[in-house]
Amino acid sequence: MKITYGLIAGFVVWCVVSSQWYLFGVKGIITDPAHFDSQKTTMAIIEIIVMLLVSVLIGFAVAWFLQQSTLDQQNTQIKSLQNVHFELEKTRAESTELIQRNEIKLARAQQTFRQDLQSLTLENERIAKEVEIEKREKIFLREELETIRPKLQLAEVEVGRIAFQNKLLESQTAEVKLVNEKVTQQLQEFQDQKIATQKQPPYSDFIASQRLGVKEFSEKDKDDLKHISGIGPVIEKKLNAIGIFTFKQISEFTPQDINHVTSSIKFFPDRIGRDNWIGQAAALARNRKYN
């Protein structure tokens, strides 16, 4: 404010000084009343006033333009501030919305945490009860073990005695087995001798041609007789040698056929019946027929 007043005072002094200079220096106005020219003085004053007015107007225009430039800058700054304020308000609204969402999520998370905590608490209580029950059961089992231990010791002694008896029985069983094998061998030799004394035609011809009516077999018609439990490669060759090649032939064995086959291949007695050759051969023959 002081600077403004100082400028106004300086402008007034300048106007007075300029007016004096213009009146006396330029126009040559004489202050002597004898030579005073009122018309000339009036015109000079009017010119001074006009020049002062023009100066004022020019100064006002310059000040207005300067002020307008300042106002435009201020308006630009105001608009920029308004935009910044709008962005801040928008950001504040978004932040508020985000805070609200986070608060909702936090509330849900807290609720879920409380529920999980309750579930864990219940589970811990259940586990604690189970642990307590297991501890009691362990104590009970330990007491039972202390009670049963003498009985177990007696049982171990009894088991040892029984194991010793089993070994004795195994040795006796082995001896009996050897005796049975010797008896079986002697019986087989006796049957071989009995068959040798009999004068009958070879049973292979009877099986292969007379009863079954088949003399020769191709490789396609032959069956793998080893599929029957109890027939190995050696027995299969002996059966082929007496004319038996298929499951169908074996499935049609009669008791007389079994006796003759047993005698011909020198097989153990009743082995064909025990291994159920006839049933196995019938099943295999049916499967081959359907396949």
In short:
With 291 residues, the protein is an all-alpha fold. The chain has helices at residues 2-26, 38-197, 203-211, 233-241, 247-251, 255-265, 271-274, 277-290. It contains eight helices and no strands.
Question: Helix amount, in percent?
Answer: over 70%
Protein structure class: mainly alpha
Rg estimate, integer Å: 69 Å
Low-pLDDT runs: 197-210
Portion of residues in beta strands equals under 5%
Provide mean pLDDT, rounded.
Answer: 78
Provide the succession of SSEs. Answer: HHHHHHHH
Q: How many beta-strand runs?
A: 0
Tell me the overall shape.
Answer: rod-shaped
Q: Major sheet, described briefly? A: none
Relevant terms:
mainly alpha, 291 residues, rod-shaped, 8 helices
How does this structure look, described?
This protein has 291 residues and is mainly alpha-helical. Among the domains are: 73 residues; 89 residues, no CATH class. Helix 1 runs antiparallel to helix 2.
Any chance you could write out the topology, listing elements then pairs?
Blueprint: H1 2-26, H2 38-197, H3 203-211, H4 233-241, H5 247-251, H6 255-265, H7 271-274, H8 277-290
